[in-house]
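This week, think about what follows.
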Amino acid sequence: MKKLTKAADRLACIMYKDYLDWRRAGMPKADAKEFGSAKTIHRQLLPFAFLEDVDESCRELGRADYVSIQYGYDVVQGVALSDDAIFYMGNRFKDGVVGVTNFLSQFIP
């Protein structure tokens, strides 16, 4: 996978953790990969960040093939984790939710 900024990497990890949580809760894989618009991601996952920064992180993840993006009026309208990102994150965090949660906990003040 391509290199990411710290902000985009954190977003990818947050999305992967939610993906794992949703799968454990019984959600189908295709649905668990879907995250909605940059605005939805901002509201649900990163409310403390600027919407513009979340949007740019989504675009960066798209350029790195971590997510697929649907645009509408030049705005990120749909974001879905790619199979490559799920595979990469699964190898990065071999202990699943525990590993990604431990990684993300270092960013909580």
